[in-house]
Amino acid sequence: MDLFLVIYVIIVGVATLFYLFWVGNKGIWGQLAARFPAKKTPEDLNKKNQKIESVSLIVHQKWRGDGWNIVLITLNESYICLSPSGILKYFVPTVFIPWSQVDEVRECKFFLQKKTELLIHNMDISVLLPYHYLALTKGKLAKQSNGNAKTPFS
Q1: Are 116 and 73 in contact (CB under 8 A)?
Q2: In the structure, what pLDDT confidence band is assigned to residue 18 with cuts at 50, 70 and 90?
Q3: Rounded CA gap, 42 and 66, in Å?
Q4: Using 50, 70 and 90 to split pLDDT, how confident is the model at 64?
């Protein structure tokens, strides 16, 4: 009985780690990470602007998406950084989305909760942030469209 329990725990642990790796690198998050790779590590960023929150990634016109509950969100003048925290940071890459690649920021409803939706340029993916980011993201996007901010990718 004890050997069965040990083997069961090992199999469940390996399957969980494989799932985290697969979803973070081959799923919707992986598509964002492939298009917007991280140029900096989260440790290089300004700590006072970071908060751990939940982020949802939704594919347009499909009932498909990913929900990430422990993501370090950093808003900067030139980009938004989404970095998994905890054990996820070892399996899931960090994403830097420049404001120039955000087409629109709007309010939306997601499972009866108000969210901030970022529409990504030339992708069928929406990034849903907590609602209190709506005013912040609209301000950053307005500065970017006026040409006052530079992206780390230019």
Answers
A1: no
A2: confident
A3: 21
A4: low
* AA identity, residue 41: T
Residues 40/98, Cβ–Cβ less than 8 Å? no
Residue whose entry in the numeric block shows the structure tokens 């642990």:
13
| Tokens 């990470």, residue located | 33
> Can you give the pTM of this predicted structure?
0.70
Per-residue 3-state assignment (H helix, E strand, C coil) for the chain: CHHHHHHHHHHHHHHHHHHHHHHHHHCHHHHHHHHCECCCCHHHCCHHHEEEEEEEEEECCCCCEEEEEEEEEEECCCEEEEEECHHHHHCCCCEEEEHHHEEEEEEEEECCEEEEEEEECCCCEEEEEEHHHHHHHHHHHHHHHCCCCCCCCC
pLDDT digits (tens, 9 = 90+) for 97-128: 888 888 888 888 878 888 888 888 888 888 88
Distance CA 56, CA 115 (A): 10
Q: Six-digit token pair at 82?
A: 């989404």
Cα-based distances in Å from 45 to 39, 56, 63, 72, 112: 11, 22, 34, 11, 33
